[in-house]
Each structure stands twice: as C-alpha cells, then as structure tokens.
Design goal:
7 helices; mainly alpha; 65% helix
C-alpha cells in the first residue's frame, strides 16, 4: 500500500513538472508570432510573409549580407526559430528551404540567393510519373512528385496513387 502511494505521488510530481515546463516554454514563445512582422534592414515593406515563392525579386549582395548578419545575430542569441522566420520573411522561401539555409549559415557554409526550384509543367510531371510507374518504380515517382510540387509525402503519395489509378482505367 505504501509503495502504491509513493508511486502515485511521484507520478503527480512528474505531471506537475511537465506542466510547469510546458507553461514556461509557452510563455517564452508567445510573442514569436509578431517577430516576422517587424522590418529588417533590406527587407520588403512591413507586411505578412508572402505565400507566393515567385513574388520576391532575386536578392542583391547587400541584401544577402544583411540577411546573413541578421541570421547570425539571431543564432548567436539562441533564436533559431526566429532566424528561420526572418529568412522566410525576407526571401519568401518556404519553410523547408528556409530551415536548410539557416542551418547552412549556422555551419558557416555559403548560402546562395534564394531561388525557388522551377516546377515541372503539370503535363510533363504526370508523364514522368507515369514512366516511372510503368518501370515499377513507385518510390521514385512519389519523390519526383514531391520535389516538383513541394508537396508533403502524403499528398505526393495520394497524387501518384491517383495517377496510377487513372493508368489502370485507361
């Protein structure tokens, strides 16, 4: 009976500790949503991030220097998430590209100006996916679709499955 009581007390303390940690993390991060709304030297006008990757002009060398300085400063202060958000705001990069670029800057690697990957034309993409499916290489077809459309794994798999289904019907 005493052992059960001790285990219950330990479990309750563990839950309280987990709640305190979660609340402290929330309190530290609650202002992060406004961070990207601030203007940075060399950044576009103060507005919400554009979701169109083609909306931004190519970065000039001065913009890249300013961006690298900002990212270095944020990383030095332990603010990696804010560095990724700032990179996205300034360049218009998607989350994955911004994360990779900030991690490259963190490692001291040179980062080229952000340029979105040119997507394959939809008809060409479907034809390339069909060719891979005919060869029995569904994994490569999903990867091709995922890279070309910047979709997630599930969305890409569903799209390739739909293409495969249309192939069976015709």
């Amino acid at each position: 009976m005493t052992i059960i009581l001790i285990l219950i007390i330990i479990l309750a303390l563990f839950l309280v500790l987990a709640a305190v940690i979660a609340i402290s993390i929330w309190l530290q991060n609650r202002g992060d949503n406004d961070f990207v709304q601030q203007s940075y030297p060399g950044s576009p006008v103060n507005h919400a991030p554009s979701r169109s990757m083609d909306a931004r002009p190519p970065a000039s060398p001065d913009d890249l220097e300013t961006l690298n300085s900002l990212v270095h400063e944020l990383l030095a202060n332990g603010m990696k998430l804010q560095a990724i958000k700032a990179y996205r705001e300034i360049t218009g990069a998607d989350l994955r590209d911004a994360k990779y670029a900030v991690e490259a800057i963190e490692r001291g690697e040179p980062v080229l100006p952000y340029a979105p990957i040119n997507a394959i034309a939809p008809g060409d993409l479907e034809e390339q996916v069909r060719n891979l499916l005919r060869k029995g290489n569904k994994v490569a077809a999903i990867k091709l679709y995922m890279d070309a459309t910047r979709s997630g794994l599930k969305e890409s798999k569903d799209a390739v499955d739909a293409i495969e289904q249309r192939m069976r019907i015709s």
